[in-house]
Design brief:
The chain is of the alpha/beta class. The protein has ten helices and eleven strands. The strands form two sheets. The chain has a nine-stranded mixed sheet with strand order 5-4-6-7-3-8-9-10-11, with helices on both faces. Strands 1-2 form a two-stranded antiparallel ribbon.
């Protein structure tokens, strides 16, 4: 894993560091995905890593470089985000923890969850994390939160939830937000990570299984123009024959026959500073809400081919 030298931070996954390089202060990263491809899971995993690093690195040079993380999870209020983070760390099903169904969880689960929540609250109270409660924030609300907290790292999931003001269209609101966050990254020397929806490409059931392209980012051409780095998440399939693809399109076979369990892929669709990174693909495993490297386990030959060109 890359060393943390203050100007740059490891993503936390070696394969992603190798494909796109580290997170660098002063840059805006846009991470696009279609529904259920893992953008919120990725945000939660990164937040959990940040929480774990706070006590671990105290007194080892970590505080020479501020690490104040502001996270805007527009689809989860802070209380749900905290419980999801703790559940994932403990290996519990998040939905059961959110519903407080302790009777369906291992003995002692309620106590362990309470202890985990206390750790997160301490990190928040000490000023190293802020979870913003904003289901559909305006850019003014976010700017106010950022001005008050002065974060060094910002994660917004996701930008299409920015709410227009006045006579703005959604398109204009997203465009304004992209300009704001790019300027913030450069002027505040911050790392800005923004999740984005991707447009449908007319591929029907195959939509979220195809490697995305830069033009797939939804609602705003500014994302294509202003992102320093743009990544696309997708769920890879093993290579299909023409006959198998026709059967899926005709509804004769389901995609469950061709999906790769626990597999997640991240394609580099733009890198302003590292041209050779474009089209690189990082291979990750997503198991019960936890994203890890592929662990060096060989993929089947057909699946291995599908990472670069599934179709």
């Amino acid at each position: 894993m890359l060393a943390d030298n203050g100007r740059e931070i490891s993503w936390g996954w070696d394969t992603l560091d190798a494909a796109v390089g580290p997170l660098v202060r002063g840059r805006m990263y846009v991470i696009g995905a279609r529904p259920s491809c893992g953008k919120t899971t990725m945000a939660l995993c990164w937040i959990q890593r940040h929480i774990e690093m706070v006590p671990m690195l105290t007194g080892q040079g970590f505080w020479d470089y501020p690490r104040r993380l502001l996270a805007v999870l527009t689809e989860r209020p802070p209380i749900a985000a905290r419980r999801s983070l703790v559940a994932t760390q403990l290996g519990y099903q998040p939905d059961l923890v959110l519903r407080e169904r302790w009777d369906l969880l291992p003995i002692g689960a309620e106590t362990h969850v309470a202890e985990g929540l206390k750790v997160i609250q301490e990190v928040e109270q000490n000023g190293w994390l802020r979870l913003v409660d904003a289901a559909g924030p305006t850019i003014e609300v976010l700017a106010s939160e950022i001005e008050a907290f002065q974060p060094n790292v910002i994660w917004l999931d996701y930008i299409q939830r920015i709410r227009p003001t006045g006579r703005q269209s959604r398109f204009d609101a997203v465009g304004e937000a992209v300009h704001y966050f790019q300027a913030l990254a450069h002027e505040a020397d911050a790392i800005v990570m923004i999740a984005s929806q991707l447009k449908r490409r007319g591929d029907g059931v195959f939509d979220k299984y195809r490697p995305p392209f830069l033009e797939d980012f939804k609602l705003s051409g500014e994302i294509e123009e202003l992102a320093d780095v743009a990544l696309g998440l997708f769920r890879p399939l093993r290579r299909l024959t023409a006959e198998e693809e026709r059967a899926v399109r005709n509804g004769e076979r389901g995609l469950e026959d061709f999906t790769m369990p626990e597999a997640m892929a991240i394609k580099v669709v733009k890198h302003r500073y590292w041209g050779d990174a474009a089209d690189q693909i990082a291979r990750l495993r997503c198991r019960q809400g936890v994203i890890t490297d592929w662990d060096g386990v060989p993929l089947p030959v057909q699946a291995e081919e599908s990472w670069e060109a599934p179709f």
